[in-house]
Write a structure and sequence with these properties.
With 132 residues, this protein is an all-beta fold. The chain is 0% helix and 36% strand. Strand 7 and strand 8 (113-119) form a beta hairpin.
């Protein structure tokens, strides 16, 4: 099973969160998703955002990452000649597979990279049921 980008087709006005284009007032962190033996890992590039300003939530099998990168203000006497870095609010959502243990998700941030570890549930071994 894999983690997939969540797309709620009942709310089409939110489709723009998943499109690669960006306007001048928005940005979307890039992510890598990988599956390891005992867990899934999401790595998100979120430089310039304080980890305490990032909200991670889990509801109905969907993991959501929200936050905001604030625009830096130039000094009063500074002349800005070019602005390429994006700022503003962001939101990414991922549908988790049934094998994900939502109660044991952990997150940490280091050097502008957010790591979310999603452990897998222990697989229940099939068992025989005796008929009396």
């Amino acid at each position: 099973m894999t983690i997939t980008q969540y797309q709620n087709w009942l709310r089409p006005h939110h489709r723009h969160f998943f499109v690669d284009h960006q306007d001048a007032n928005s940005w979307t962190p890039r992510v890598d998703v990988r599956e390891e033996d005992g867990r899934y890992v999401i790595l998100a590039d979120i430089p310039g955002v304080d980890p305490k300003d990032i909200e991670i939530s889990m509801a109905k099998g969907v993991l959501t990452i929200k936050g905001e990168r604030k625009q830096e203000t130039a000094a009063e006497n500074a002349k800005v000649t070019r602005v390429e870095r994006r700022h503003g609010a962001f939101e990414r959502s991922f549908a988790l597979p049934d094998s994900a243990d939502a109660d044991a998700i952990t997150a940490s941030g280091k050097n502008g990279v957010l790591e979310i570890a999603i452990p897998k549930k222990a697989q229940a071994a099939p068992r025989k049921i005796a008929v009396n």
